Structure prediction request, 579 residues.
Amino acid sequence: MSTASIAAPPQPAAAPVARPRSVRLALARVEGRRLLMHPLFALGMATSIAALALASGRLPIGAADKTASVDMLVGDCFVMLGGAIWTFLVAFLAASRERRDGAQDFYAGQAVTPRLRTEAMLLSLGYAGLAGAALIAVAALVLVGLDGALVDGGQRYTVPPLALAQGPLYLVLAGALGVLAGSWTRHVYAGVFLALVLFLPPVALVPVFVFDDTLSPGFYGAVYARGPIGSLVTGIAALVVLAAAGALARHDRRPRIALLALVALGVAAIALGLPQGPDAGLGPPPGTGP
Amino acid sequence: MSDTTIRMAQLRKRYGTTDVVAGLSLGIGPGVTGLLGPNGAGKTTLMRMLATVLAPTDGDLALLGRDPADPDERTDVRRRLGYMPQEPGFHRQFTAFEFVDYVAILKEMTDTRARHREVRRVLETVGLGDVTGRRIRKLSGGMRKRVALAQALLGDPQLLVLDEPTAALDPEQRMRFRELASELGGERIVLVSTHQTEDVAALCQRVIVLRDGRAAFDGTPAELSGLARGRVWIADGRDERAQLWWRTAEGRHRHVGEPPPGAQLVEPTIEDGYLLLAGPAVVPEGLAA
Prediction:
Protein backbone atom coordinates (compact mmCIF):
# COMPACT_ATOMS: atom_id res chain seq x y z
CA MET A 1 0.00 0.00 0.00
CA SER A 2 1.72 3.17 -1.06
CA THR A 3 1.24 6.24 1.05
CA ALA A 4 1.04 8.40 -2.05
CA SER A 5 -1.90 6.46 -3.42
CA ILE A 6 -3.72 6.84 -0.13
CA ALA A 7 -2.99 10.47 0.35
CA ALA A 8 -4.60 11.46 -2.91
CA PRO A 9 -7.12 8.90 -4.08
CA PRO A 10 -7.95 9.61 -7.72
CA GLN A 11 -11.48 10.28 -8.73
CA PRO A 12 -13.49 7.24 -9.74
CA ALA A 13 -13.50 6.40 -13.39
CA ALA A 14 -16.87 4.74 -13.61
CA ALA A 15 -20.24 6.09 -12.69
CA PRO A 16 -22.93 3.57 -11.73
CA VAL A 17 -25.71 3.09 -14.23
CA ALA A 18 -29.02 1.51 -13.45
CA ARG A 19 -30.18 -0.47 -16.45
CA PRO A 20 -31.24 -3.96 -15.42
CA ARG A 21 -30.83 -5.38 -18.91
CA SER A 22 -27.21 -4.34 -19.28
CA VAL A 23 -26.43 -5.40 -15.71
CA ARG A 24 -28.00 -8.79 -16.39
CA LEU A 25 -25.96 -9.24 -19.55
CA ALA A 26 -22.73 -8.11 -17.90
CA LEU A 27 -23.28 -10.55 -15.05
CA ALA A 28 -24.19 -13.32 -17.49
CA ARG A 29 -20.97 -12.73 -19.42
CA VAL A 30 -18.90 -12.98 -16.26
CA GLU A 31 -20.75 -16.06 -15.05
CA GLY A 32 -20.57 -17.65 -18.49
CA ARG A 33 -16.83 -17.12 -18.69
CA ARG A 34 -16.41 -18.55 -15.21
CA LEU A 35 -18.42 -21.60 -16.25
CA LEU A 36 -16.33 -22.17 -19.37
CA MET A 37 -13.09 -21.71 -17.45
CA HIS A 38 -14.11 -23.94 -14.56
CA PRO A 39 -11.92 -27.05 -14.31
CA LEU A 40 -14.97 -29.27 -13.73
CA PHE A 41 -16.62 -28.01 -16.91
CA ALA A 42 -13.39 -28.64 -18.81
CA LEU A 43 -13.35 -32.13 -17.31
CA GLY A 44 -16.91 -32.68 -18.47
CA MET A 45 -16.20 -31.57 -21.99
CA ALA A 46 -13.06 -33.70 -22.03
CA THR A 47 -15.20 -36.66 -20.98
CA SER A 48 -17.57 -35.94 -23.80
CA ILE A 49 -14.77 -35.70 -26.33
CA ALA A 50 -13.29 -38.97 -25.06
CA ALA A 51 -16.71 -40.61 -25.38
CA LEU A 52 -16.96 -39.25 -28.89
CA ALA A 53 -13.59 -40.67 -29.85
CA LEU A 54 -14.31 -44.03 -28.26
CA ALA A 55 -17.81 -44.59 -29.51
CA SER A 56 -17.17 -43.37 -33.02
CA GLY A 57 -14.60 -46.06 -33.60
CA ARG A 58 -11.83 -43.52 -34.06
CA LEU A 59 -9.93 -45.36 -31.38
CA PRO A 60 -8.95 -49.03 -31.51
CA ILE A 61 -11.82 -49.79 -29.18
CA GLY A 62 -15.34 -48.54 -29.51
CA ALA A 63 -18.27 -48.76 -31.84
CA ALA A 64 -17.86 -50.57 -35.13
CA ASP A 65 -21.26 -49.89 -36.61
CA LYS A 66 -20.97 -46.51 -38.26
CA THR A 67 -24.63 -45.65 -38.42
CA ALA A 68 -25.23 -46.66 -34.83
CA SER A 69 -22.35 -44.55 -33.64
CA VAL A 70 -23.54 -41.54 -35.62
CA ASP A 71 -27.06 -42.11 -34.42
CA MET A 72 -25.92 -42.26 -30.87
CA LEU A 73 -23.39 -39.47 -30.95
CA VAL A 74 -24.92 -36.87 -33.19
CA GLY A 75 -28.58 -37.70 -33.22
CA ASP A 76 -29.09 -38.71 -29.64
CA CYS A 77 -26.21 -36.83 -28.06
CA PHE A 78 -25.08 -39.55 -25.72
CA VAL A 79 -21.75 -37.85 -26.06
CA MET A 80 -23.10 -34.95 -23.99
CA LEU A 81 -23.71 -37.01 -20.87
CA GLY A 82 -20.24 -36.40 -19.36
CA GLY A 83 -20.45 -32.70 -20.09
CA ALA A 84 -23.95 -32.50 -18.66
CA ILE A 85 -23.05 -33.99 -15.29
CA TRP A 86 -20.23 -31.55 -14.76
CA THR A 87 -22.20 -28.62 -16.16
CA PHE A 88 -24.84 -29.42 -13.59
CA LEU A 89 -22.28 -29.39 -10.80
CA VAL A 90 -20.56 -26.19 -11.95
CA ALA A 91 -23.90 -24.40 -12.26
CA PHE A 92 -24.88 -25.74 -8.84
CA LEU A 93 -21.68 -24.43 -7.30
CA ALA A 94 -22.13 -21.02 -8.92
CA ALA A 95 -25.76 -20.69 -7.84
CA SER A 96 -25.05 -21.75 -4.26
CA ARG A 97 -21.84 -19.72 -4.01
CA GLU A 98 -23.41 -16.86 -2.06
CA ARG A 99 -24.72 -19.08 0.72
CA ARG A 100 -21.80 -21.51 0.74
CA ASP A 101 -19.40 -18.62 1.30
CA GLY A 102 -21.65 -16.88 3.83
CA ALA A 103 -21.87 -13.77 1.66
CA GLN A 104 -25.59 -13.06 2.10
CA ASP A 105 -24.94 -9.84 4.01
CA PHE A 106 -22.53 -8.74 1.41
CA TYR A 107 -24.92 -9.31 -1.50
CA ALA A 108 -27.88 -7.91 0.42
CA GLY A 109 -26.26 -4.48 0.45
CA GLN A 110 -25.87 -4.34 -3.34
CA ALA A 111 -28.13 -2.60 -5.80
CA VAL A 112 -28.55 -5.71 -7.95
CA THR A 113 -31.34 -7.96 -6.71
CA PRO A 114 -31.06 -11.73 -6.17
CA ARG A 115 -33.69 -12.20 -8.88
CA LEU A 116 -31.55 -10.43 -11.43
CA ARG A 117 -28.52 -12.44 -10.36
CA THR A 118 -30.45 -15.68 -10.87
CA GLU A 119 -31.61 -14.50 -14.28
CA ALA A 120 -28.00 -13.74 -15.20
CA MET A 121 -26.92 -17.16 -13.95
CA LEU A 122 -29.52 -18.79 -16.19
CA LEU A 123 -28.53 -16.65 -19.15
CA SER A 124 -24.90 -17.62 -18.67
CA LEU A 125 -25.85 -21.21 -19.49
CA GLY A 126 -25.91 -20.07 -23.08
CA TYR A 127 -22.14 -20.36 -22.93
CA ALA A 128 -22.46 -24.04 -22.04
CA GLY A 129 -24.91 -24.42 -24.91
CA LEU A 130 -22.44 -22.81 -27.29
CA ALA A 131 -19.65 -25.10 -26.09
CA GLY A 132 -21.93 -28.08 -26.65
CA ALA A 133 -22.92 -26.81 -30.08
CA ALA A 134 -19.27 -26.50 -31.04
CA LEU A 135 -18.60 -30.06 -29.95
CA ILE A 136 -21.61 -31.42 -31.81
CA ALA A 137 -20.73 -29.42 -34.89
CA VAL A 138 -17.25 -30.91 -34.96
CA ALA A 139 -18.66 -34.39 -34.36
CA ALA A 140 -21.18 -33.96 -37.15
CA LEU A 141 -18.52 -32.73 -39.55
CA VAL A 142 -16.16 -35.58 -38.72
CA LEU A 143 -18.75 -38.32 -38.80
CA VAL A 144 -21.21 -37.17 -41.41
CA GLY A 145 -19.62 -34.45 -43.44
CA LEU A 146 -20.90 -31.21 -44.82
CA ASP A 147 -23.84 -32.66 -46.75
CA GLY A 148 -25.35 -34.20 -43.64
CA ALA A 149 -25.64 -37.60 -45.29
CA LEU A 150 -23.97 -40.83 -44.42
CA VAL A 151 -23.51 -43.81 -46.69
CA ASP A 152 -23.02 -47.07 -44.89
CA GLY A 153 -23.52 -50.60 -46.15
CA GLY A 154 -24.85 -49.26 -49.40
CA GLN A 155 -27.55 -47.33 -47.58
CA ARG A 156 -27.80 -43.54 -47.51
CA TYR A 157 -28.80 -41.97 -44.22
CA THR A 158 -29.47 -38.40 -43.22
CA VAL A 159 -29.03 -36.67 -39.90
CA PRO A 160 -32.06 -34.52 -39.06
CA PRO A 161 -30.61 -31.04 -38.42
CA LEU A 162 -32.94 -30.53 -35.50
CA ALA A 163 -31.48 -33.60 -33.84
CA LEU A 164 -28.21 -31.77 -33.55
CA ALA A 165 -29.85 -29.29 -31.21
CA GLN A 166 -30.45 -31.95 -28.59
CA GLY A 167 -26.91 -32.06 -27.27
CA PRO A 168 -26.42 -28.34 -26.65
CA LEU A 169 -29.92 -28.09 -25.24
CA TYR A 170 -29.19 -31.03 -23.00
CA LEU A 171 -26.18 -29.16 -21.55
CA VAL A 172 -28.33 -26.08 -20.98
CA LEU A 173 -30.92 -28.25 -19.23
CA ALA A 174 -28.25 -29.75 -17.00
CA GLY A 175 -27.03 -26.24 -16.15
CA ALA A 176 -30.56 -24.99 -15.46
CA LEU A 177 -31.14 -27.93 -13.13
CA GLY A 178 -27.86 -27.03 -11.42
CA VAL A 179 -29.00 -23.43 -10.94
CA LEU A 180 -32.34 -24.70 -9.66
CA ALA A 181 -30.68 -26.98 -7.11
CA GLY A 182 -28.09 -24.37 -6.13
CA SER A 183 -30.80 -21.77 -5.60
CA TRP A 184 -32.50 -23.88 -2.98
CA THR A 185 -29.68 -25.69 -1.22
CA ARG A 186 -26.09 -24.80 -0.47
CA HIS A 187 -24.90 -28.26 0.50
CA VAL A 188 -22.38 -29.67 -1.94
CA TYR A 189 -23.23 -33.24 -1.02
CA ALA A 190 -26.81 -32.54 -2.09
CA GLY A 191 -25.52 -31.35 -5.48
CA VAL A 192 -23.39 -34.45 -5.95
CA PHE A 193 -26.28 -36.69 -4.92
CA LEU A 194 -28.60 -34.94 -7.36
CA ALA A 195 -26.02 -35.29 -10.15
CA LEU A 196 -25.97 -39.04 -9.59
CA VAL A 197 -29.75 -39.30 -9.40
CA LEU A 198 -30.39 -37.13 -12.42
CA PHE A 199 -27.81 -38.44 -14.83
CA LEU A 200 -26.44 -41.84 -13.87
CA PRO A 201 -27.89 -45.33 -13.56
CA PRO A 202 -29.87 -46.79 -11.98
CA VAL A 203 -32.17 -43.76 -11.61
CA ALA A 204 -31.00 -41.40 -14.36
CA LEU A 205 -34.05 -39.17 -14.39
CA VAL A 206 -32.86 -36.74 -17.04
CA PRO A 207 -31.40 -38.71 -19.94
CA VAL A 208 -34.45 -40.91 -20.50
CA PHE A 209 -36.03 -38.74 -23.12
CA VAL A 210 -32.79 -37.58 -24.70
CA PHE A 211 -31.02 -40.82 -24.83
CA ASP A 212 -32.71 -42.86 -27.51
CA ASP A 213 -30.50 -45.81 -26.80
CA THR A 214 -30.68 -48.14 -29.75
CA LEU A 215 -27.68 -50.15 -28.66
CA SER A 216 -28.71 -51.02 -25.13
CA PRO A 217 -32.29 -49.93 -24.68
CA GLY A 218 -33.49 -49.48 -21.16
CA PHE A 219 -30.02 -49.19 -19.66
CA TYR A 220 -30.69 -45.60 -18.76
CA GLY A 221 -34.00 -45.73 -16.98
CA ALA A 222 -37.20 -47.58 -17.54
CA VAL A 223 -38.72 -45.08 -19.92
CA TYR A 224 -37.26 -43.50 -22.94
CA ALA A 225 -38.93 -41.43 -25.53
CA ARG A 226 -39.05 -42.26 -29.19
CA GLY A 227 -41.00 -39.46 -30.69
CA PRO A 228 -40.64 -36.90 -33.45
CA ILE A 229 -37.41 -35.02 -33.02
CA GLY A 230 -39.29 -31.72 -32.92
CA SER A 231 -41.25 -32.96 -29.93
CA LEU A 232 -38.13 -34.10 -28.12
CA VAL A 233 -36.37 -30.77 -28.64
CA THR A 234 -39.50 -28.89 -27.58
CA GLY A 235 -39.79 -31.10 -24.52
CA ILE A 236 -36.20 -30.48 -23.48
CA ALA A 237 -36.62 -26.74 -24.02
CA ALA A 238 -39.78 -26.80 -21.89
CA LEU A 239 -37.88 -28.57 -19.13
CA VAL A 240 -35.20 -25.88 -19.30
CA VAL A 241 -37.90 -23.26 -18.78
CA LEU A 242 -39.42 -25.30 -15.95
CA ALA A 243 -36.06 -25.57 -14.17
CA ALA A 244 -35.44 -21.85 -14.73
CA ALA A 245 -38.84 -20.99 -13.26
CA GLY A 246 -38.06 -23.15 -10.24
CA ALA A 247 -34.76 -21.32 -9.74
CA LEU A 248 -36.38 -17.90 -10.15
CA ALA A 249 -39.11 -18.80 -7.69
CA ARG A 250 -36.49 -18.73 -4.92
CA HIS A 251 -36.52 -14.94 -5.02
CA ASP A 252 -39.48 -14.12 -7.23
CA ARG A 253 -42.91 -15.12 -5.99
CA ARG A 254 -44.87 -13.30 -8.64
CA PRO A 255 -47.74 -15.26 -10.20
CA ARG A 256 -46.13 -14.99 -13.65
CA ILE A 257 -43.31 -17.31 -12.51
CA ALA A 258 -45.81 -19.93 -11.32
CA LEU A 259 -47.71 -19.54 -14.58
CA LEU A 260 -44.50 -19.95 -16.56
CA ALA A 261 -43.71 -23.13 -14.65
CA LEU A 262 -47.19 -24.54 -15.26
CA VAL A 263 -47.07 -23.81 -18.97
CA ALA A 264 -43.58 -25.32 -19.26
CA LEU A 265 -44.70 -28.40 -17.38
CA GLY A 266 -47.67 -28.80 -19.66
CA VAL A 267 -45.61 -28.38 -22.81
CA ALA A 268 -42.98 -30.83 -21.56
CA ALA A 269 -45.60 -33.41 -20.66
CA ILE A 270 -47.27 -33.14 -24.06
CA ALA A 271 -44.06 -33.01 -26.10
CA LEU A 272 -42.27 -35.82 -24.32
CA GLY A 273 -45.36 -37.93 -23.97
CA LEU A 274 -45.84 -38.21 -27.72
CA PRO A 275 -45.20 -41.86 -28.51
CA GLN A 276 -46.09 -41.63 -32.18
CA GLY A 277 -43.96 -40.56 -35.10
CA PRO A 278 -40.63 -41.69 -36.44
CA ASP A 279 -37.61 -42.49 -34.38
CA ALA A 280 -35.70 -39.44 -33.25
CA GLY A 281 -32.45 -40.85 -34.53
CA LEU A 282 -31.12 -41.57 -37.99
CA GLY A 283 -33.29 -43.07 -40.61
CA PRO A 284 -33.26 -43.58 -44.32
CA PRO A 285 -35.46 -40.92 -45.83
CA PRO A 286 -38.18 -42.18 -48.16
CA GLY A 287 -37.04 -42.63 -51.68
CA THR A 288 -33.36 -42.71 -50.89
CA GLY A 289 -31.24 -45.70 -51.44
CA PRO A 290 -27.89 -46.92 -52.57
CA MET B 1 -31.64 16.21 -3.51
CA SER B 2 -28.15 15.53 -2.17
CA ASP B 3 -29.05 15.02 1.47
CA THR B 4 -25.85 13.73 3.02
CA THR B 5 -27.10 12.65 6.38
CA ILE B 6 -28.33 9.63 8.25
CA ARG B 7 -31.31 10.22 10.47
CA MET B 8 -32.82 7.73 12.84
CA ALA B 9 -35.60 8.20 15.33
CA GLN B 10 -36.50 5.61 17.94
CA LEU B 11 -34.86 2.98 15.77
CA ARG B 12 -35.40 -0.48 17.11
CA LYS B 13 -34.45 -4.01 16.12
CA ARG B 14 -35.92 -6.84 18.08
CA TYR B 15 -35.01 -10.52 17.99
CA GLY B 16 -37.58 -12.51 19.90
CA THR B 17 -38.07 -10.57 23.11
CA THR B 18 -34.67 -8.87 23.03
CA ASP B 19 -34.19 -5.35 21.71
CA VAL B 20 -30.73 -5.53 20.15
CA VAL B 21 -31.09 -1.91 19.08
CA ALA B 22 -33.38 -0.23 21.58
CA GLY B 23 -34.78 3.06 20.35
CA LEU B 24 -31.78 4.91 18.91
CA SER B 25 -32.30 8.51 17.85
CA LEU B 26 -29.29 9.96 16.07
CA GLY B 27 -28.30 12.16 13.18
CA ILE B 28 -25.02 11.53 11.42
CA GLY B 29 -23.50 13.89 8.87
CA PRO B 30 -20.37 13.90 6.70
CA GLY B 31 -17.10 12.98 8.33
CA VAL B 32 -15.79 9.91 10.08
CA THR B 33 -17.95 8.64 12.90
CA GLY B 34 -16.74 5.84 15.12
CA LEU B 35 -19.02 3.30 16.70
CA LEU B 36 -17.69 1.69 19.86
CA GLY B 37 -19.28 -0.81 22.16
CA PRO B 38 -18.78 -4.18 23.80
CA ASN B 39 -19.72 -7.39 22.03
CA GLY B 40 -23.49 -7.68 21.84
CA ALA B 41 -24.04 -3.93 22.20
CA GLY B 42 -25.83 -3.81 18.85
CA LYS B 43 -23.08 -2.34 16.67
CA THR B 44 -23.25 -4.87 13.86
CA THR B 45 -27.05 -4.91 13.92
CA LEU B 46 -27.06 -1.11 13.59
CA MET B 47 -24.47 -1.26 10.79
CA ARG B 48 -26.58 -3.83 8.94
CA MET B 49 -29.63 -1.62 9.18
CA LEU B 50 -27.65 1.34 7.90
CA ALA B 51 -26.38 -0.82 5.04
CA THR B 52 -30.01 -1.68 4.17
CA VAL B 53 -29.32 -5.35 4.80
CA LEU B 54 -31.65 -5.53 7.76
CA ALA B 55 -35.02 -3.85 8.18
CA PRO B 56 -35.72 -2.16 11.52
CA THR B 57 -38.49 -3.60 13.67
CA ASP B 58 -39.68 -0.16 14.55
CA GLY B 59 -38.75 3.52 14.28
CA ASP B 60 -37.77 5.83 11.46
CA LEU B 61 -34.65 5.66 9.38
CA ALA B 62 -33.61 7.95 6.53
CA LEU B 63 -30.38 7.33 4.63
CA LEU B 64 -29.11 10.13 2.41
CA GLY B 65 -32.61 11.56 2.46
CA ARG B 66 -34.20 8.31 1.33
CA ASP B 67 -36.43 5.80 3.03
CA PRO B 68 -34.85 2.34 2.91
CA ALA B 69 -38.24 0.75 3.56
CA ASP B 70 -39.29 1.75 0.05
CA PRO B 71 -37.82 -0.71 -2.51
CA ASP B 72 -36.95 1.96 -5.09
CA GLU B 73 -35.45 4.32 -2.56
CA ARG B 74 -33.58 1.42 -0.96
CA THR B 75 -32.00 0.59 -4.32
CA ASP B 76 -31.13 4.25 -4.71
CA VAL B 77 -29.38 4.22 -1.33
CA ARG B 78 -27.48 1.08 -2.29
CA ARG B 79 -26.17 2.81 -5.39
CA ARG B 80 -24.58 5.39 -3.09
CA LEU B 81 -23.46 2.93 -0.45
CA GLY B 82 -20.15 1.21 0.16
CA TYR B 83 -20.58 -1.58 2.67
CA MET B 84 -17.85 -3.65 4.22
CA PRO B 85 -19.46 -6.32 6.39
CA GLN B 86 -17.68 -7.79 9.37
CA GLU B 87 -17.51 -11.13 7.53
CA PRO B 88 -17.62 -10.35 3.81
CA GLY B 89 -17.89 -14.00 2.74
CA PHE B 90 -15.30 -13.98 0.02
CA HIS B 91 -15.44 -16.29 -2.95
CA ARG B 92 -12.02 -17.74 -2.37
CA GLN B 93 -11.63 -19.13 -5.86
CA PHE B 94 -11.94 -15.64 -7.35
CA THR B 95 -8.86 -13.50 -7.84
CA ALA B 96 -8.82 -10.13 -6.11
CA PHE B 97 -9.54 -8.44 -9.43
CA GLU B 98 -12.35 -10.85 -10.35
CA PHE B 99 -14.01 -10.40 -6.98
CA VAL B 100 -13.95 -6.61 -7.03
CA ASP B 101 -14.97 -6.63 -10.68
CA TYR B 102 -17.94 -8.87 -9.85
CA VAL B 103 -18.99 -6.47 -7.10
CA ALA B 104 -18.61 -3.58 -9.53
CA ILE B 105 -21.21 -5.21 -11.78
CA LEU B 106 -23.45 -5.66 -8.74
CA LYS B 107 -23.05 -1.91 -8.32
CA GLU B 108 -24.38 -1.53 -11.86
CA MET B 109 -21.13 -0.63 -13.56
CA THR B 110 -21.64 -2.26 -16.92
CA ASP B 111 -19.15 -0.52 -19.17
CA THR B 112 -16.32 -3.04 -19.15
CA ARG B 113 -13.44 -0.68 -19.81
CA ALA B 114 -14.54 1.95 -17.29
CA ARG B 115 -15.36 -0.74 -14.77
CA HIS B 116 -11.95 -2.37 -15.04
CA ARG B 117 -10.32 1.04 -14.67
CA GLU B 118 -12.34 1.64 -11.52
CA VAL B 119 -11.47 -1.82 -10.15
CA ARG B 120 -7.77 -1.16 -10.66
CA ARG B 121 -8.15 2.25 -9.02
CA VAL B 122 -9.68 0.92 -5.81
CA LEU B 123 -7.26 -2.00 -5.62
CA GLU B 124 -4.36 0.40 -5.96
CA THR B 125 -5.91 2.72 -3.41
CA VAL B 126 -5.82 -0.04 -0.80
CA GLY B 127 -2.35 -1.10 -1.88
CA LEU B 128 -3.24 -4.31 -3.67
CA GLY B 129 -2.26 -3.19 -7.16
CA ASP B 130 0.43 -5.83 -7.39
CA VAL B 131 -1.66 -8.84 -6.33
CA THR B 132 -4.75 -8.30 -8.46
CA GLY B 133 -4.33 -11.69 -10.15
CA ARG B 134 -3.84 -13.66 -6.97
CA ARG B 135 -6.67 -15.88 -5.79
CA ILE B 136 -8.35 -14.71 -2.60
CA ARG B 137 -7.71 -18.01 -0.86
CA LYS B 138 -3.99 -17.30 -1.20
CA LEU B 139 -4.20 -13.80 0.29
CA SER B 140 -3.40 -13.11 3.94
CA GLY B 141 -6.13 -12.03 6.36
CA GLY B 142 -5.00 -8.42 6.14
CA MET B 143 -5.00 -8.49 2.35
CA ARG B 144 -8.52 -9.91 2.34
CA LYS B 145 -9.63 -7.08 4.59
CA ARG B 146 -8.19 -4.68 2.05
CA VAL B 147 -10.03 -6.44 -0.78
CA ALA B 148 -13.22 -5.98 1.24
CA LEU B 149 -12.38 -2.32 1.70
CA ALA B 150 -11.59 -1.93 -2.00
CA GLN B 151 -15.02 -3.17 -3.06
CA ALA B 152 -16.64 -0.76 -0.60
CA LEU B 153 -14.84 2.14 -2.28
CA LEU B 154 -16.17 1.31 -5.76
CA GLY B 155 -18.04 4.14 -7.41
CA ASP B 156 -17.03 6.74 -4.84
CA PRO B 157 -20.01 6.12 -2.51
CA GLN B 158 -21.50 8.91 -0.42
CA LEU B 159 -22.06 6.59 2.50
CA LEU B 160 -19.40 4.16 3.70
CA VAL B 161 -20.39 1.60 6.31
CA LEU B 162 -17.30 -0.22 7.53
CA ASP B 163 -17.76 -2.95 10.12
CA GLU B 164 -14.49 -3.61 11.95
CA PRO B 165 -12.29 -2.63 9.03
CA THR B 166 -9.03 -2.73 10.98
CA ALA B 167 -9.41 -6.20 12.46
CA ALA B 168 -6.60 -8.45 11.14
CA LEU B 169 -4.62 -5.48 9.85
CA ASP B 170 -1.05 -5.06 11.04
CA PRO B 171 -0.06 -1.71 12.64
CA GLU B 172 1.28 -0.26 9.39
CA GLN B 173 -1.86 -1.20 7.48
CA ARG B 174 -3.99 0.25 10.25
CA MET B 175 -2.12 3.50 10.09
CA ARG B 176 -2.67 3.63 6.36
CA PHE B 177 -6.31 2.74 6.71
CA ARG B 178 -6.66 5.73 9.02
CA GLU B 179 -5.10 7.98 6.42
CA LEU B 180 -7.44 6.65 3.76
CA ALA B 181 -10.56 6.87 5.93
CA SER B 182 -9.82 10.40 7.06
CA GLU B 183 -9.24 11.40 3.43
CA LEU B 184 -12.56 9.86 2.42
CA GLY B 185 -14.42 11.43 5.32
CA GLY B 186 -14.24 14.93 3.88
CA GLU B 187 -17.57 15.04 2.09
CA ARG B 188 -18.86 11.56 2.72
CA ILE B 189 -20.39 9.85 5.70
CA VAL B 190 -17.91 7.26 6.89
CA LEU B 191 -19.21 5.10 9.68
CA VAL B 192 -16.63 2.84 11.29
CA SER B 193 -17.52 0.17 13.81
CA THR B 194 -14.50 -0.97 15.77
CA HIS B 195 -13.09 -2.29 19.00
CA GLN B 196 -9.91 -0.28 18.48
CA THR B 197 -10.18 2.87 20.54
CA GLU B 198 -6.88 4.11 19.10
CA ASP B 199 -8.44 4.10 15.63
CA VAL B 200 -11.33 6.18 16.89
CA ALA B 201 -8.97 8.62 18.57
CA ALA B 202 -6.86 8.90 15.45
CA LEU B 203 -9.45 9.36 12.73
CA CYS B 204 -12.98 10.01 14.01
CA GLN B 205 -14.49 13.42 14.42
CA ARG B 206 -17.29 11.90 16.38
CA VAL B 207 -17.72 8.78 18.46
CA ILE B 208 -20.86 6.98 19.55
CA VAL B 209 -20.66 4.36 22.28
CA LEU B 210 -23.39 1.75 22.22
CA ARG B 211 -24.36 -0.28 25.20
CA ASP B 212 -27.36 -2.61 25.34
CA GLY B 213 -28.64 -1.19 22.08
CA ARG B 214 -28.63 2.40 23.29
CA ALA B 215 -26.28 5.30 22.75
CA ALA B 216 -24.37 5.57 26.01
CA PHE B 217 -22.22 8.39 24.65
CA ASP B 218 -22.28 10.68 21.63
CA GLY B 219 -19.54 13.25 21.27
CA THR B 220 -15.97 13.84 20.17
CA PRO B 221 -13.09 11.52 21.06
CA ALA B 222 -11.71 14.27 23.30
CA GLU B 223 -15.01 14.44 25.15
CA LEU B 224 -14.98 10.67 25.57
CA SER B 225 -11.52 10.68 27.09
CA GLY B 226 -12.55 13.74 29.14
CA LEU B 227 -15.15 11.59 30.90
CA ALA B 228 -12.32 9.89 32.68
CA ARG B 229 -10.44 13.04 33.64
CA GLY B 230 -9.59 12.89 37.34
CA ARG B 231 -10.70 9.24 37.47
CA VAL B 232 -7.60 7.45 36.28
CA TRP B 233 -4.69 6.85 38.59
CA ILE B 234 -1.58 4.75 38.88
CA ALA B 235 -0.56 2.85 41.99
CA ASP B 236 2.01 0.25 42.86
CA GLY B 237 -0.61 -2.19 44.09
CA ARG B 238 -4.16 -3.02 43.21
CA ASP B 239 -6.79 -0.70 44.63
CA GLU B 240 -10.02 -2.51 45.45
CA ARG B 241 -12.04 0.70 45.20
CA ALA B 242 -11.39 1.07 41.49
CA GLN B 243 -14.09 0.24 38.98
CA LEU B 244 -11.49 -1.32 36.67
CA TRP B 245 -7.80 -1.97 36.99
CA TRP B 246 -5.04 -3.69 35.09
CA ARG B 247 -1.35 -4.25 35.44
CA THR B 248 0.76 -2.17 33.11
CA ALA B 249 3.94 -3.19 31.32
CA GLU B 250 5.95 -1.33 33.98
CA GLY B 251 4.53 -3.55 36.69
CA ARG B 252 2.32 -0.86 38.19
CA HIS B 253 -1.48 -0.85 38.29
CA ARG B 254 -3.66 1.50 36.33
CA HIS B 255 -7.07 2.15 37.84
CA VAL B 256 -10.27 3.66 36.50
CA GLY B 257 -12.99 4.77 38.89
CA GLU B 258 -13.29 7.04 41.88
CA PRO B 259 -9.70 7.74 43.01
CA PRO B 260 -8.73 7.65 46.70
CA PRO B 261 -7.42 10.87 48.25
CA GLY B 262 -3.84 11.58 47.22
CA ALA B 263 -3.94 9.15 44.26
CA GLN B 264 -1.42 9.71 41.46
CA LEU B 265 -3.77 10.89 38.71
CA VAL B 266 -2.74 10.48 35.10
CA GLU B 267 -3.98 11.88 31.78
CA PRO B 268 -6.88 9.73 30.59
CA THR B 269 -7.05 8.16 27.16
CA ILE B 270 -10.11 7.54 25.03
CA GLU B 271 -9.87 3.93 26.15
CA ASP B 272 -10.20 5.01 29.80
CA GLY B 273 -13.30 7.03 28.97
CA TYR B 274 -14.74 4.14 27.02
CA LEU B 275 -14.00 1.62 29.79
CA LEU B 276 -15.55 3.88 32.37
CA LEU B 277 -18.63 4.24 30.26
CA ALA B 278 -18.99 0.69 29.10
CA GLY B 279 -18.05 -0.80 32.45
CA PRO B 280 -16.86 -4.26 33.37
CA ALA B 281 -18.63 -5.88 30.43
CA VAL B 282 -15.84 -4.85 28.08
CA VAL B 283 -12.86 -6.18 30.04
CA PRO B 284 -11.91 -9.80 30.58
CA GLU B 285 -13.18 -11.45 33.69
CA GLY B 286 -10.74 -10.97 36.52
CA LEU B 287 -9.62 -7.54 35.48
CA ALA B 288 -12.79 -5.91 36.63
CA ALA B 289 -12.74 -5.02 40.29
